[in-house]
Structure formats: structure tokens, C-alpha cells
Amino acid sequence: MTIKTTVIPLLRKVIYDTYANLPVSGISEGDLAFASDRIVLYRWDGSAWVAITISSRHGNKANIGNAADYPESSLYQADDEGKLYMLVSGAWVPIVVPTVV
Q1: Number of domains forming the structure of the chain
Q2: Which domain range does residue 29 map to?
Q3: pTM above 0.85, yes or no
Q4: pLDDT grade, residue 99 (50/70/90)?
Q5: Among residues 98, 96, 64, which one has the least CA distance to residue 80?
Q6: What is the DSSP string of 14-60?
């Protein structure tokens, strides 16, 4: 049995900028953008940029950032506290590792 394959090329724009500067016109559904300030990859759904990756960053807890600016399940390692935080339901929540007795 012979399987035939056809390649259909499709060009997409890929944009690199801060989130506030991502365009909302002159783009097509499926275009991609990387927000350098959030370190998140987005896909244009025809009306809005939708996050398709989470953000994973580290630094001092004071620099964790506004939860509304990051996709759900994003991670932040607070180096000064030695704690890992996860964005859950719109809030940064410390991930607690239970101790084994």
C-alpha cells in the first residue's frame, strides 16, 4: 500500500516585542508573538492574543509581578525565600512540599 503525502505551506507571522506593544491589526488568526517582558508565547485567535505557554521566572519575591499579567499555572522561584510559587485562579500561591516523617 502506498501512502501519498502532500505538503501545504502556510506562512505565519512571528512577532517579538513586549506584551503592550503586540499588534492588534495587520495580523491573521494563527500568527504568533513572543512577549519578551513576560517570557510567554501567544497565538492570535482572530480577536485577542491567547497565551499558549506559561511563564517560568525567578528573582526576589518583591519582583514576582502582577498575577493578571501572566497565564494560569505560571511559575516563579523566589530566590530570597527559597520558595516556588504557582499562579492558581489568578493569585500567586506558594507550592508547599510536605515533609516526610
Answers
A1: 2
A2: 10-53
A3: no
A4: confident
A5: 64
A6: EEEE-GGG--SSS--TT-EEEETTTTEEEEE-SSSEEE-S--EEEE-
